[in-house]
Design a protein that fits this description.
This protein has three helices and 18 strands. By secondary structure, the chain is an alpha+beta fold. It has one domain: Jelly Rolls, CATH 2.60.120. The strands form three sheets. Strands 1, 4, 6, 11, 12, 13, 14 and 18 form an eight-stranded antiparallel β-sheet that branches. It has an eight-stranded antiparallel β-sheet with strand order 2-3-5-15-7-8-9-10, with no helix packed on it. It starts with 11 loop residues before the first helix and ends in a 9-residue tail after the last helix.
Length: about 260
C-alpha cells in the first residue's frame, strides 16, 4: 500500500536516529521529523517513538528523538516491545528516563511546555508518565483512583493540587492527548482527539531534587499501559492549532495504522 505521506529523501536527523536505535521505519520517522521542523518545533522537542519498528524494538533502551537533546530511557523489569507500542503490563515494568523535567535546565513544569502522547490503558487505575520530587507527586499524565481522569497533577512541593476529569477515555483504546503547561500563570490545559478539557490553575511551589521521569510508573507504583509515543516540547506551550497540527502529523506518519480517533 502507498505510504500516507509524500516520499522525500531521508531527513539527516531521522537517519541518525535510525542508525543509533536500529529503527527500521525510516520513511515514517523522516516524514515526522520533517513535519515537526516545518512547524518550527524541532529544537524544543524530545520524543520517544515506542512502536517496535520506530525504535530499537528489542533490548532495554528506548532511544530519544528530537532537537532538544538526547534523553534515552531504560526499560526496567521487562516492558514488552510491540507493533503498537511499549506494553508495561509485566510486574514492575516501566521506562526510566534519567532526567528531571521539573527543575533541570530544560524544565517544563514551573516554566512552559507541552507533553503529548498516544497511549492506551489496560486498567482503571494507572499513571502513564510521571515526574516526581522527593516530597510529593509533581505531575502524572493518565488516570488515577479508578476513575476516567485523563490527567492528574499536583504541581510542586508546597503547591496546590488539580485534577482534570473527563469521561471519554475507554480501556484498551489508544488516544492522542496533550497536557499544556503555562508555568508563568500556573495554568494546565488538556486537549485530546480534537477536544479541549477544562483548564486548571495550580498554585506554585518549590521543585525538589528527584531526577527521574517515568513511563508506566509513578516512582513506586507500576501501572499497566501501552504507549506508542511520548513527546515533550520544552519552552513552548502549544496552541490548539499547533496541538492539532502535531496530532495530524503523527496520525499520518508514526501513528499510521493505530486507529487513533
Amino acid at each position: 500500500m502507498p505510504l500516507p505521506f509524500t516520499a522525500r529523501s531521508i531527513d539527516p536527523d531521522a537517519a541518525a536516529f535510525c542508525a543509533r536505535s536500529g529503527a527500521s521505519d525510516r520513511a515514517a520517522l523522516s516524514a515526522f521529523v520533517r513535519g515537526v521542523k516545518d512547524l518550527g518545533l524541532w529544537e524544543s522537542m524530545v520524543c520517544w517513538p515506542l512502536r517496535s519498528e520506530q525504535n530499537a524494538g528489542t533490548g532495554t533502551t528506548a532511544y530519544s528523538l528530537g532537537g532538544l537533546g538526547t534523553y534515552n530511557g531504560s526499560l526496567v523489569n521487562g516492558p514488552v516491545w510491540g507493533a503498537d507500542g511499549i506494553d508495561t503490563s509485566p510486574t514492575n515494568a516501566h521506562i526510566e528516563i534519567p532526567y528531571n523535567f521539573l527543575n533541570g535546565p530544560n524544565s517544563i513544569v514551573g516554566q512552559t511546555g507541552s507533553l503529548l502522547a498516544a497511549f492506551a490503558n489496560f486498567a482503571t487505575d494507572f499513571g502513564i508518565i510521571s515526574n516526581r520530587g522527593a516530597s510529593g507527586n509533581f505531575w502524572a499524565f493518565g488516570t488515577r483512583n479508578s476513575t476516567t481522569q485523563i490527567f492528574s497533577t499536583s504541581n510542586v512541593t508546597g503547591g496546590g493540587n488539580s485534577i482534570v476529569t473527563e469521561s471519554s477515555l475507554s480501556t484498551n483504546n489508544l488516544q492522542f492527548a496533550g497536557f499544556h503547561m503555562d508555568g508563568a500563570a500556573n495554568v494546565y490545559r488538556t486537549r485530546w482527539n480534537g477536544t479541549n478539557a477544562t483548564s486548571a490553575t495550580v498554585s506554585g511551589g518549590t521543585a525538589s531534587s528527584r531526577t527521574n521521569f517515568q513511563i508506566g510508573r509513578e516512582i513506586t507504583t507500576q501501572y499497566a499501559v501501552k504507549c506508542a509515543i511520548c513527546i515533550i516540547f520544552d519552552g513552548t506551550v502549544l496552541s490548539d492549532t499547533q496541538h492539532d497540527a502535531v496530532e495530524s502529523l503523527y496520525k499520518q506518519t508514526l501513528g499510521a495504522g493505530l486507529g487513533l480517533p
